[in-house]
Amino acid sequence: MDPRLSPDPATLSPSSEMMDMTPDNHNGAGQHGNADSDMFNLVDQQTAADATVGTPSSLSNMTMAADGTTPGEQAVGNNTTPKRKRFVKVVEVDAPNNLDLDAYIATYKGHTKINRLEFIADRCPSLQIDALKLAITELKSTQTLNVTRLSSLVKKLNEAVKGGGSVGANVSNDLLSLDKVWVDSQLLLAKQQTETLEGELKNYKRNSIKESVRMGYIELGNHYYEVGDLSNAHRSYSRTRDFCTTPKHMMELSMNVIKVSIELGNFPHVLTYVVKAESTPEVSQDKELTKAKLKAASGLANLDLNKYNSAARDFLSIGEELVGHQYGEVMSANDIAVYGGLCALASFSRAELKRLVIDNVGFRQYLELEPHIRDLIQGFYNSNYSLCLDIMDKWRNDYLLDIHLHSHIEALYTNIRKKALVQFTSPFMTVDLNKMAKSFSTTVPALEQELKSLIISGQIEARIDSQQKILWAKQTNKRSAIFDRTAAMSQDYERDAKGLVLRMQMISHGLVVKVPSSDKGNPEHIT
């Protein structure tokens, strides 16, 4: 049997037809397309040191392995290649404040649905059993060929049930075990399909028919993707490049590679193929939908690369084509509202926030799906900072369970808070630090430290009176500044006028050296 398609032997018991997935001393294995691997997203070092919004009581334990993984992620499946690993804190969430798991996960489909459920299970103990049950049910209902991942999820569920007390007692035995006959049949079916598709591809290459070879690679890539072998799926899709003969073929290639690259976490590659797809002439009937998907993929890649301004502009430029969750294999319409809104608040100026977000009719449809994001943006623009901080703190735990957003919450919240502090102080000559601390739900000493960092970085031009607890804005003599600017402009005008008069006098007295026609264009000859 093909070793790539073999399940974890620790989860299968050959002595019985029905196998109980009992936990052992080893940690659960995950696919390289698992949501677990997204824990390797980078957290900006400066962000980790900055002040953050929200109360620390809303978070629970914080664990971190040497490679940035949780203890349950350190084993990798036989048929997988782990994603790029990056050092990041792993935060366990006690309980989200607003997450309805069934309604939330219903907006996704395909691999991302399983990835998000497994991610939530690994991060939130209170939702672990429910998330694993939904993931296992989804894989079994689709007759998945990715038996390795299914067995890993079943093993995790058994471990959770064993330590879950009364909560785990309600789990059906069908979810806690796998039928060995069914597992063997799925493994055999996956192996047979792989051999068949590879054999057909060899025949196509032998006949040298470009279209047949291209379709053969696509079918093989689809099969590898279904099995969970993302690296081979990416390789098969990429090899169709040499056999693409029309713009439609190039677009199909780009969309397939983008889909797999997102799941692999290779976001620079995503941006490369987004550019290629956008430069391809549109020939499909649903070209607007394709453009929207490309913008969504580009926004997600820029978010992962900490380019929040670019990410916000990508999400805000998505039309109404994705309102109905048409890109559910990657993200939902609700995600577009959340990602776009938070990135805009963290990176846009007040004028840009008004012009690109509040007055954006197309993006308004996405904000209707997430009213709290709409209220957050309006509150920030209207300088209602206490409302903004309450909303951000209330939804913090929910965002920490988002597979793409969790590692950026600290940076985004810190940037939003800094912009709020700057915006709060800008209209006043003096600010009472006691009243300001109350508005920002913090203490005066902590507020002084935040203001000090902003003053040092030049974002606020002011001084702190620590004795009277007052922030004094630096006073500038506007009359003197205008006079100095006027004097500088007059000097520039005088210099330009003298130069123009001198040139006119030189021309009138024949003091200009004419360049011969043969030497025109030679920079060594100056008139």
Strand tally, please? 9
Mean pLDDT: 80
| Shape verdict | flat
Distance between the termini: 82 Å
In helices, the fraction of residues equals: 55-70%
What order do the strands of the largest sheet run in, or round the barrel if closed? 7-9-8
User: Can you count the helices?
Assistant: 22
Alpha-carbon Rg, integer: 30 Å
Strand content: under 5%
Largest sheet: 3 strands, antiparallel
- Low-confidence parts, pLDDT < 50 over ≥5 residues? 1-87
Q: Helix- and strand-based class?
A: mainly alpha
Family: Belongs to the CSN1 family.
Biased composition (Polar residues): 50-63
Keywords: Cytoplasm, Nucleus, Signalosome
Pfam families: PCI, RPN7
Fold topology:
Elements (H helix, E strand, L loop, with lengths): L17 E3 L8 E2 L14 H5 L12 E2 L11 E2 L13 E2 L9 H5 L5 H13 L4 H14 L5 H16 L10 H4 E3 H28 L2 H18 L2 H9 L8 H18 L2 H12 L8 H18 L3 H9 L16 H15 L2 H9 L2 H7 L3 H11 L3 H16 L8 H17 L4 E3 H7 L4 H13 L5 E4 L4 E4 L4 H31 L19
